[in-house]
Specification:
The complex is a heterodimer.
Chain A (H helix, E strand, L loop, with lengths): L1 H31 L6 H15 L19 H30 L1 H23 L13 E4 L2 E4 H23 L1 H11 L1 H5 L5 H23 L9 H16 L4 H21 L5 H15 L10
Chain B lengths: L1 E10 L2 E11 L4 E6 L5 H9 L6 E6 L2 E2 L5 H6 L2 E4 L11 H8 L9 H14 L1 H5 L10 H13 L5 E5 L7 H16 L4 E5 L2 H7 L2 E6 L2 E7 H6 L1 H8 L3
Helix pairs in contact in B: 3-6
Classes of the chains: A mainly alpha, B alpha/beta.
């Protein structure tokens, strides 16, 4: 029983990270109809920058040779998130906006190239070492005999906070309303004075903030390196598909379902085969619900 | 206030408009008439910037707006009620209407917004009752009312109406055109595309008639209505 609860709690917290990245996928998809496979690279960039600014980078990394001050965690997080937004805006302006002129498909393909371009850059500046970073705080929460580590609690709180803020943005602001309108009918939005180019840029800002925060807060629970984003990219894409591509909040449910399946498969069957088990289940689910849990039937 | 000069438009390699010139003055209701495929909707889409023009010039309020993106043209005060309504189906009636006022969202004045909403609700009272309903769940006539209401929420300097009677029952068409007449009495200039010539000519002062992408005839509504032969030939004498 304790094991079950332990696994469920762990599954929910990892799953909520998949959910956050998947939300990033969907926000961008809704504004542009492209699938941004480099979403996971925002995750890496945010996490690695916090590591850099808190002085955790190995001396072999190029950035470690710069005379960077060691910053308090909160400030390091703020700066890292802002830098990730700038990176996303550059990628949007220089690559994706041009590719979108041809088609969302072209832009999706370009985002695949972006993964390897960014990982190359990350190798150069952050080095090729892998890191186990320490939790932000030291405490534990007991819940029905199971123990929840401090970082898992922070992960959950971050996920809940982001979902609430996003909900308020989409349903309580005129810009959020414009985002929803643009997702549904871009031409109709344009004749009302809504610039769809602006919506795409906004969606990249939102996706990169969420991606960076997700990476930063989960970093102490994973092995962090220049290529950590790719696994996230794949898992979160699965979560987005499972929740229904384009359904922003469905993505969070998809992520948590995926996280739970993974945790339970790992705990009761085999950690070695958990990915195989999870993705087999995913294929089965999608055979019966091809548009995902909350997707509209096509 | 709007002047279209020698407009030519292509869909890919196929030219659909040839040398179209027309104008509309403040306070006027002008109809664009013609059979299906005559290019009427294409003209509206080119004016609002949803279609690129091959050549020609569109000026609005003395300024050249040819080739500007649609969102910029909308911000300058031209509002299109598009063919097929193009509502945001999953959003509520109220949300659709509020989006109509998006051009003013940076200087949003809640009092003015409420005033504009009331203007639309007075025009189409049924929309007030159904303000929380998703637009997709309305009847065709109600959806058309939302589309017109949404087009009015920006306080347009010029309203473009594309086939607002399409697929509606005669009684509803009457109601929609009653609203058009009211808007005219409020001084809003309207350029409307219509297949039902008689209905349009009852509201418009002038009309342009198109055939296969070319301007065929233009004149006052009276002139057109008197040309019996003409109406019978091109609109099937109703």
């Amino acid at each position: 029983m304790e094991l079950l609860i332990q696994l469920i709690l762990g599954g929910i917290s990892t799953g909520s990270i998949y959910g956050l990245i998947a939300i990033g996928y969907n926000v961008v998809y809704n504004s542009s109809r492209m699938v941004n496979f480099s979403q996971g690279e925002f995750f890496t960039f945010g996490a690695m920058l916090v590591l850099t600014f808190t002085g955790g980078l190995a001396s072999s990394a190029a950035l470690a040779h710069l005379p960077l001050p060691i910053l308090p965690l909160v400030i390091a997080i703020l700066i890292s998130v802002m830098a990730t937004v700038l990176l996303a805006l550059a990628a949007e302006r220089l690559v994706f906006r041009r590719a979108l002129k041809f088609s969302p498909f072209a832009a999706s393909n370009a985002s695949f190239g972006m993964i390897f371009l960014l990982q190359g850059v990350y190798q150069l500046i952050f080095g090729r070492d892998y890191y186990f970073t320490s939790s932000f705080m030291k405490f534990q929460v007991q819940f029905m005999g199971a123990t929840l580590a401090s970082q898992a609690v922070l992960v959950l709180l971050t996920a809940i906070g982001i979902v609430l803020i996003l909900w308020a943005y989409f349903f309580r602001t005129s810009q959020g309303l414009a985002m929803r309108a643009g997702a549904e009918n871009p031409d109709a939005a344009r004749i009302l004075g809504i610039s769809t180019t602006n919506l795409v840029r906004l969606s990249f800002i939102i996706a990169s903030v969420i991606g960076a925060l997700a990476g930063i807060v989960i970093a102490p629970m994973v092995i962090l390196g220049y290529d950590s984003g790719l696994a996230m990219t794949l898992k979160a894409f699965a979560a987005a598909i499972l929740g229904g591509l384009g359904n922003v909040f469905g993505a969070m449910v998809g992520g948590i379902v995926l996280g739970l399946m993974e945790a339970l498969a790992g705990g009761y069957i085999s950690t070695l085969y958990k990915d195989a088990i999870v993705f087999s289940l995913l294929i089965l689910i999608l055979l019966y619900r091809p548009t995902g849990i909350f997707g509209k039937s096509a | 206030m709007l002047e279209v000069k020698n407009l030519e438009v292509c869909y890919g390699a196929i030219q659909v408009l040839w040398d179209v010139s027309l104008n509309i003055d403040s306070g006027e209701v002008v109809a664009l008439l013609g059979a299906n495929g005559a290019g009427k909707s294409t003209i509206l889409k080119s004016i609002i910037g949803l279609l690129p023009t091959k050549s020609g010039k569109v000026t609005f309020d003395g300024r050249d707006i040819t080739g500007l993106p649609a969102e910029n043209i909308a911000r300058r005060g031209i509002s299109l009620v598009p063919e097929g309504r193009q509502l945001f189906g999953s959003l509520s009636v109220l949300e659709n209407l509020l989006l109509g006022a998006y051009v003013h969202h940076r200087k949003l004045d809640t009092r003015k917004l409420a005033q504009d909403l009331n203007f639309v609700y007075d025009l189409f009272p049924v929309l007030k009752e159904r303000s929380e309903t998703a637009a997709a769940n309305l009847s065709g006539g109600q959806q058309q009312m939302v589309a017109i209401g949404r087009g009015l929420m920006s306080r347009p300097k010029l309203l473009l109406l594309d086939e607002v009677s399409l697929g509606l029952a005669p009684l509803l068409i009457k109601e929609i055109y009653k609203a058009v007449n009211y808007l005219h009495s409020q001084g809003i200039p309207i350029l409307l595309v219509e297949q039902l010539a008689n209905v349009a000519l009852a509201s418009a002062q002038r009309a342009y008639v198109f055939q296969s992408g070319k301007l065929f005839f233009s004149g006052t509504a009276c002139e057109l209505l008197e040309t019996e032969k003409f109406t019978t030939a091109y609109f099937g004498g109703r």
